[in-house]
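hey can u check if this looks right to u? its 283 residues, i copy pasted from the old doc so theres a chance i mangled smth
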Amino acid sequence: MNPEPPAVLRCAGRTVARYTTRPGLALDHSPRPYLHPVTTLAGRPVTETVPEDHPHHLGAGIAVPDVAGHNFWGGRTFVRDRGSVELDNHGVQRHDGFKLCDPDGFVEELTWTAGGERLLREHRTVAATALTEAAWALDLTFSLANVSGRDLSIGSPATNGRPGAAYGGFFWRAPKETKAPVVFGAAADADGEEAVHGVRSDWVALVGEGWTLVFAGATARTREDPWFVRAAEYPGVGSSLAHDGRLPVTAGETFVRRVVTVVADGRLDRDEAAALVRKAVAS
């Protein structure tokens, strides 16, 4: 896979993200397009890529650890009764091209392949919208169609026997700082990693050193997916496609998810985060 220059995403006259479409990565990283660096309007980076603790974490994007047994997440695969093992089962999200690529967003077509087989076709839309002088929103919608000609299902380490590890879907790796980020959700008592991890919530906030990220399910179906949240071990948030059980995707079926992320300078409180989410989802 030959690397190519990243696309640039701009908002309020500033570059706020770069999008790598064909990363030059080893196959065991499950090469895929990703956003990095994503920054606040003041220029503070709020993504991390290829970190030492999890070198297959790639900024912000879509990553799934189990599509019919194929690994589109990177790294080891969790196998029931065996644990995390190295397998030669990694897939690639191939960038097929942009249908539209403007400074404030793009529409992309991708093909998910593994073992020489086309499994999924993806239609991905990404847009940047200014909210205030200190905040903007990244709106990401992905539509996945089963083009394999057979029934498939999507799983996670949790559905394969590892409790609490239902990652897979939209995922954002934030920078690791001296202190773990503050985490809270939409409910008044949803404070801390344990209160929001694995929980269905309209939104979840991650607050670091001078920045805040607020992740919101922007459709009713997306809000049915619980959040996968890490803060103490590393800072990362995702929306779980396969939490309680595997997600079936029959031959020819398409499913859609939309996540809007508020990217703000400063440390927002719950009321401020909620107000920006309402504005971002409505825009």
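The helical segments are 193-196, 220-223, 270-282.
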